[in-house]
UniProtKB/TrEMBL annotation:
InterPro entries: APS_reductase, PAPS/APS_Rdtase, PAPS_reduct_dom, Rossmann-like_a/b/a_fold. This is Adenosine 5'-phosphosulfate reductase. The active site is at C224. The lineage of its organism: Bacteria, Pseudomonadati, Pseudomonadota, Betaproteobacteria, Burkholderiales. The gene is cysH. Belongs to the PAPS reductase family. CysH subfamily. Catalyzes the formation of sulfite from adenosine 5'-phosphosulfate (APS) using thioredoxin as an electron donor.
Length: 241
């Protein structure tokens, strides 16, 4: 049974965090993967008309269903999510030297592919901003268990916010259903966490929500690098809200 009052309190707290970001950390941007969590934040930001830009990393290997979410956002909110793509020459060099799907061969090869397709474009997307917002939650995986709502991201020289850190999977879906928020069709096909098509599979009942991401790797390596520096998570300093 849904605890409506608890969810309303979470929503109010998250709205307050987003309003504080808009007021005190402008210019700020929201890095959306177009997954369920990110659609909750998209809904909260756009319905409140907050001056927080929304962008997504178009890696060139996304599912068609993920790309379709861009049209859903446009139709529902009249908003165009800004896309950042990898440098074509870097992609071509990787493929020429290692092969299109070399990321299956080792963690290093996978992280290099993620660096080219996600990390480098992220740097361009964050440039010139004072803060960035993510849809990360503590309950998503063991690598995110210590997640804080506000962090000092020294690697990018800005504040980093995870407004949904306290939210559960159920909270996310209750909000989506209660508010008619559009979402990726793959979520209805057993994909709780969605990345690039070759690196994401559906999960089995009872599996961790991120078990389908880089399923051939150990759980403690399952980060693409967006939240890491030199192989370590970028959680250098927590900041009290």
């Amino acid at each position: 049974m849904t605890d409506t009052s608890a969810l309303l309190a979470l929503v109010a707290s998250t709205r307050a965090t987003l309003e504080r970001i808009a007021a005190d950390y402008s210019p700020a941007v929201f890095a959306s993967s177009l997954a369920a969590e990110d659609m909750v934040l998209t809904d909260l930001i756009l319905k409140a008309n907050l001056p927080i830009g929304i962008f997504s990393l178009e890696t060139g290997r996304l599912h068609p269903e993920t790309l379709a979410v861009l049209d859903q956002v446009k139709a529902a909110y009249g908003y165009d999510v800004k896309l950042y793509k990898p440098q074509p020459e870097a992609v071509d060099a990787y493929v020429a030297q290692h092969g299109l799907n070399a990321f299956y061969e080792s963690v290093d090869m996978r992280r290099e592919c993620c660096r080219i397709r996600k990390v480098e474009p992220l740097g361009r997307a964050l440039a010139g901003n004072r803060a960035w917002v993510t849809g990360q939650r503590r309950s998503q995986s063991s690598t995110r268990a210590q997640l804080d709502i506000q962090e000092d991201d020294a690697a990018h020289g800005m504040a980093k916010f995870n407004p949904l850190a306290d939210w559960s999977e159920a909270d996310v879906w209750n909000y989506i259903r209660d508010n008619g928020v559009p979402y990726n069709a793959l979520h209805d096909q057993g994909f709780p966490s969605i990345g690039c098509a070759p690196c994401t599979r559906a999960v089995e009942p009872g599996e961790d929500v991120r078990a389908g991401r880089w399923w051939w790797e150990n759980p403690d390596s399952k980060e693409c690098g967006l939240h890491m520096v030199d192989g370590k998570l970028i959680r250098i300093k927590s900041v009290a809200a």
